[in-house]
UniProtKB/TrEMBL annotation:
Keywords: Receptor, Signal. It holds the Pfam family NMT1_3. PANTHER family: SLL1037 PROTEIN. Transmembrane segments: none annotated. This is TRAP transporter solute receptor, TAXI family. Residues 1-22 form the signal peptide. Gene3D superfamilies: Periplasmic binding protein-like II.
Amino acid sequence: MRFHTVSGAAAAIVALSVTAAAAQDRENWPDSFTVGTASQGGTYFAYGSGWANLVADELGMSGGAEVTGGPMQNMALVHTGDAEFGMTTMGPARESIEGTNPIAPGMKMDNACAMFPMYQTPFSITALAGSGIDSIDAIPDGARIGFGPAGSTSDTYFPRMLETLGVNFDRRNGGWSDLGGQLQDGLVDVIAFAAGIPVPAVSQLEVQTDVNIIEFTEEEQQKILEEFPVSEFQIPATTYQTLEEPARSVAMWNFAIANCDLPEDFVYAVTDVVMSDNERMMNIHRAAKSTVVENWDKNKVLPWHPGAAKWFNENGASIPEDMIKGG
């Protein structure tokens, strides 16, 4: 009896010691965290909400996603610390670091660090099948085109791309779900999407009506590649019911970002939750197929957070010291 009592007491002491050590290890962690995403109905919100909830559950802390204006605003929020984490594309990231983010012109947003690769954002165009718009050169002069939320990757780059291709349009902004409704109601003629695929709003649209998913011609694609920080991309035919074959496109890489001042062990733990089980991430969103260690080198713009860099370098990456914040 005495043996069991002593053993029980010892076990309790060990448990308390482990709990105390764990609490001490997390002493400098924030009480909660926010992930800046984009508008509802877009891939950022679906993907970001998923990994925010996953991290909160796995680490036993309060955290979640916040609807934002997208990559440009996320760079600003993470830079200032108003959001611990966010998501951005490489184009807006570069502009923000250079001080040309339209949210705060002149401010060099260099306190947002890379955390992990997400996926490529293809640029694609959708119109109602009944509109007769089945190619970029079929878009009529003055067409009302929805470019997503103001300041988003789509709103920043797609208007410039279409101008490069000679399209004359009336620019509209809004959340992806809202623009999908406007397209159905005839309030806009075209939606120019820049979002991870499948875009929830497009998937919803094609369930409710017939749509055209418009690809770039080879010549149009080449013009865009010469003018913008994008790469060749093909939207697989399996992405949407509407597609019968792959659609030619261009794409820009997305990365999750962290405020550079966050504790190294905290960001390491968050990165581990997201990156250690790709199947789990794929269940959140199919675009997470690209959320793998091998794509660490797609970031050529942002400094890496030391906690994230430590995890990646322990798991097969080779992030050079001069690409790590403070390195």
